[in-house]
Amino acid sequence: MSPSTESTTAQPPGRQAVLTAVYGGHAERLDETFTSFAVNPFLELHAFVFGERLPERQVAGIQYHLVKPDGTFSQPYREVNYRRWEVMDELGTDHVLVVDALDVLCLQPMPSLPEVLKGLPMAAAVEHGGGRFMFGPQYTNAYLNAGVSFWDVRASATIRAQILARGRTRFRSRTDDQLSFNEVLHHHYEQLRLLTHHFNCRGLLERRVRGWPYLRSLDGVYIYHTDDAKIARTMLPVKARTELPGLEPDHGPLTRWQQFWRTVGNRFRPHQIR
Prior knowledge:
Elements: H1 3-9, E1 16-23, E2 43-50, E3 62-67, H2 76-83, E4 95-99, E5 104-106, H3 113-117, E6 122-126, E7 132-133, E8 139-140, E9 144-152, H4 157-169, H5 177-187, E10 192-195, E11 223-225, H6 229-234, H7 256-266
Parallel strand pairs: 1-2, 1-4, 2-3, 6-10
Antiparallel strand pairs: 4-9, 5-11, 6-9, 7-8
Helix pairs in contact: 4-5
């Protein structure tokens, strides 16, 4: 095949967007973290505002869309969190990244969304405590965080419709969107790309909280996602990748006692989150 033929048959990347959904006063605060995604020139920035009017203060570079609440989710917070996976169909884009509005910060240029998805309908990262029961007998070691999710819009239509249907069927809690998200994606696990923390880092920076990782560096992270986002901004710029640490070589096989003391020493190094 000639180079000219290859160039004409290659698939174009298509339109890509990052989307968030808000209501009330949150619509006035999208310059706190959401505009950080403008570092990726291939991404359109879209904000869906649920309510009666768009905010008076609109941030340059964001395209705003007014959405009339439909009242089927019992409360605004719950409706916004579910319907963000529905309104992406209105954009006409091929791939969409959906993020929480006020605590998700893009730290450095990211790979394109098709590169992240690797041909699968959706991708997401594990929550800070990934081993959980899903409010019942079903256990997973990969409980997903719903605040950052990557989608092939057309290929994910059935998955997203099932998540929405569960939310409309029964109110289980104010934040049960993440539960429905996990239930459906664990059912369709073969259509999910599981991402590392680089695409949804959930470690804390300012305070130590039981069960949460405490971080001193964000090197290698593309997307940071906690209430410490303002602190994360002060740590910019970050290195594109973490450095692979060197290892001091052994100068021959270790004796049993040397192996024992080496193992004991490792127990005093950071390993498990408590």
